[in-house]
Amino acid sequence: MDGTDGVPHEPEVPAWRRPTEGEYRWPAALVIALIIGMQLVEPGRLTVHPHWLLPALEGVFLAVLVVSNPARINRASVPLRAASLALAAVASLGNAWSLVLLIRGLIAGTEGGSAGLLLFLAATIWGTNVVVFALWYWEFDRGGPVARAHAHQPRPDFLFPQMQAPELADRDWEPAFFDYLYVSYTNATAFSPTDTMPMSRWAKLLMLMQSAISLVTAGLVVARAVNILR
Fold this sequence. Notes:
By secondary structure, the protein is mainly α. The protein has one domain (20-229). The protein is built from eight helices and two strands, in the order H-H-H-H-H-E-H-H-E-H. It has helices spanning 26-41, 53-68, 78-108, 115-140, 145-149, 161-164, 177-190, 201-229, and strands at residues 158-159, 197-198. The chain has a two-stranded antiparallel sheet. The longest helix is centred in the middle third of the chain and has 31 residues, at 78-108. The radius of gyration is 20 Å and the shape is globular.
């Protein structure tokens, strides 16, 4: 491609393929705080005992991450990376435990006496599941947010529409947490990829697992709630 001076210019490298300042911490921190709040309002019978344990652990990990790297996520640190993954793992464990106990209660007949309460519990677990998988997608795509900021891995695990049509995207566009949250939400509602395609095997496996969990939650819980309403 020629410039105005007649000298051939190289195509501009998109932001997601070059080193950048990194994305802001606050979107992920805000959604994680929402997870903690949802876990605290769940009935104690559906959570790991003591009821406050996992939310407290998540709060500690979140506080460490925010204090250590409060603005942009671009600081390479093994302890911070471990804390970030541990936070996602604890949130996943808590939500999986709640879902298992809820399903067991539905099968045993100890849960599901009230359609309103059942739908509230299902919405809480389903919503937390969306956020948890968004965290995993965000943490692993091209090595995580710090690795993406430093452009360590050029091959994407998730192919976003802006990567396929860069001429339609802002020159400084790069995937951030809310992009992964959208991928997680659409996968949980459509039970399949929509506009963003998984490229690596781990991404396909995670999306498969999320779709299966969402299908079970919707199938069992909503069917039981409709039964009660009838």
